[in-house]
Structures are given as structure tokens and as C-alpha cells.
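Researcher: Structure prediction, please.
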Amino acid sequence: PSTEQIHFIGKDITYFHTLFWPAMLHFSGRKTPNHVFVHGFMTVNGGEKMSKSRGTGLDPLKYLSLGLNAEWLRYYIAAKLNNRVEDIDFN
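Model: Predicted structure follows.
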């Protein structure tokens, strides 16, 4: 009970994870999240949502095999995060 719970979720599941999930946790006697932070999508090709099934995701091993530094990608993503729910586009 004293442990703070923070949930990070995508914008497409906000309704479920801020209404139904906390209610289910509460009425089953479990701890509800203290905070829920919502983030946008990571998109490619001018706004197409990344998808494993469509093959539009970033392959971290390919990224590294090209000689690119993982810190650059971490910095780019962190620099794009803000207090608004915005997508991050890799074009």
C-alpha cells in the first residue's frame, strides 16, 4: 500500500486505463495507480503508427549495426516528450 504506482500508457487506451482498470483494481481490493501518464504514438512515414505486424517499427539491432549511437535515439525521444499528448514522428 505504501508503494507509489505510476502507469505510462498510450493515448489509444486512455479510456480503459483511467476508468475501468482502476475500478477493477479498487473493487478487487488491489491498489489503484497514483498517477497515469499518457503519451502519443511513435509514428513513421508522416504519421503512420508504428506496427510490428506491418513491419513499420524501429529495429534497434539494425539501428546499432548502422553505427548509430543508442544515446542519440534516447535523447531524440526524450527531447520530444512534453506535457502534451503528441506523436513523435520518425520521417
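Model: The chain has a mean pLDDT of 88.
Researcher: Thanks, that helps.
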